[in-house]
Amino acid sequence: FTIPQKTLPPITASFFAVFDGHGGSQCADLLSKHFANDLSRCFAKYKADLTDTLIFNVFKEASVNFNNTMKQQLHNNTIFPGSTASVLLILNQKQAWCMNVGDSRVVVKLNDNNEQCTEDAKPEKPRFRHSILKRGGTVVFKKGTWRVDGNIAPARSFGDFHIPGMTARPKLTKWDLSHLEPQKNSFFLLATDGLW
């Protein structure tokens, strides 16, 4: 999709994503159908030149809006499957933004360096545990792993409205692509926790 700017030329955005549903495929299916468009609409709404802060706010707003819209459409149906998400947005082939909600992962090979771009949101990690408890959830060791409310292993997800303490707030990282060496076969790899 194209991102309009106020005083600068529009930016071409390439969108890639992995949505890993749990408890059913409904949430992951909805994300795959709508999240790119939701993100595009949020960028278009601002009609401003892109800054890192604006990009972060757009990702956060699109994530929260998607979750809120889904929750409103469910009415009183409080049990709804969830999904983790890893998103890669490449802007004008110069910048890459990696978004993560949950434990799906983005890994990058840039020139000769391999790095994990996203942080797995796991409830046993102190900062994730703190935010789960702060939102009224619990963290319980069950079936060999730490789980939110004794149910799911990722500390963040879309959907999962019946699980106290869950949020779809994304974690974002930015990567500069301007120094890529084409002969080095650089690439990004997006995959679910099943691969890792």
Notes on the structure:
The protein has helices spanning 26-46, 52-74, 126-134; strands at 2-3, 11-22, 82-91, 95-101, 105-110, 113-116, 139-142, 145-148, 158-159, 171-176, 187-191. It has 196 residues and is an alpha+beta fold. Strands 1, 2, 3, 4, 9 and 10 form a six-stranded antiparallel β-sheet that branches. The chain has a three-stranded antiparallel β-sheet with strand order 6-5-11, with no helix packed on it. β3 and β4 form a beta hairpin. α1 packs across α2 (52-74). The radius of gyration is 17 Å and the shape is globular. The mean pLDDT is 91.
Helix/strand order: EEHHEEEEHEEEEE
Show unreliable segments.
none
From the spread of the alpha carbons, the general shape counts as: globular
Mean of all residue-level pLDDT scores: 91
**Helix content, binned percent:** 25-40%
Binned strand content: 25-35%
What integer value in Å does the Rg equal? 17 Å
The biggest sheet amounts to:
6 strands, antiparallel
Task: Describe how the helices and strands are arranged.
Blueprint: E1 2-3, E2 11-22, H1 26-46, H2 52-74, E3 82-91, E4 95-101, E5 105-110, E6 113-116, H3 126-134, E7 139-142, E8 145-148, E9 158-159, E10 171-176, E11 187-191
Antiparallel strand pairs: 1-2, 2-3, 3-4, 3-9, 4-10, 5-6, 5-11, 7-8
